[in-house]
Amino acid sequence: EGACAITDRFSVAFGAFANGFEDVAGHVVHRRAVAHVHGLGWIVADEIDTDRPRDIDARWHFHPDVAAVAQGLDVVSADKGVANIRITPVGLADATVRIARGESEPMLG
Predict the structure, then answer these.
(1) Could you tell me if 41 and 31 are in contact, meaning their C-beta atoms sit under 8 angstroms apart?
(2) Burial of 68 by CB count in 10 Å (0-12 exposed, 13-18 middle, 19+ buried)?
(3) Rounded (10°) CA dihedral 28, 106, 34, 8
(4) Is 88 strand, coil or helix?
(5) What's the rounded Cα separation, in Å, for the pair 42 and 44?
(6) Is the pLDDT of residue 56 over 90?
(7) What is the mean pLDDT of residues 62-81?
(8) What is the CA radius of gyration of the chain?
(9) Beta pairing partners, 46
(10) Looking at residue 108, what DSSP letter applies?
(11) Helix locations, the chain, DSSP H
């Protein structure tokens, strides 16, 4: 399931992955929409549809040289003179943030 659209002002794509997660019981659908507003930036929206309560780890990977810092529940890159990114979770009841650097055991995938 998926779709995309490209115009002079923005590009947007949508996709979903359902019930194919390893070692996960029950019904789970991960939907993602990605929008690029030309000249402004990117928006990525994820939705997890599940038939039971779950602990979900949302992982974003930065290059090791990026100065990623936590600001509350937001994670931002703070590199001077270059484009930066802000990750802002919304709609989460009990969220926590942890920034991991250089870990290989267990491998973060």
Answers:
(1) no
(2) buried
(3) -160
(4) coil
(5) 7
(6) no
(7) 89
(8) 16
(9) 32
(10) P
(11) none
**Helices (H) and strands (E) in the chain — how many of each?**
0, 7
Residue 92 has a pLDDT of 73
Residue 10 in 3-state DSSP? strand
Cα separation of 93 and 88, whole Å?
Answer: 14
Residue 83: closest CA among 98, 69, 66, 71: 66
Q: Tokens for 36?
A: 């690029």
Q: Are 16 and 27 in contact (CB under 8 A)?
A: no
Please tell me what DSSP assigns to residue 107. P
101: Cβ contacts below 8 Å, ≥ 6 apart: 64
| β-bridge partners, 66 | none
Q: Across all residues in the chain, what is the average pLDDT?
A: 87
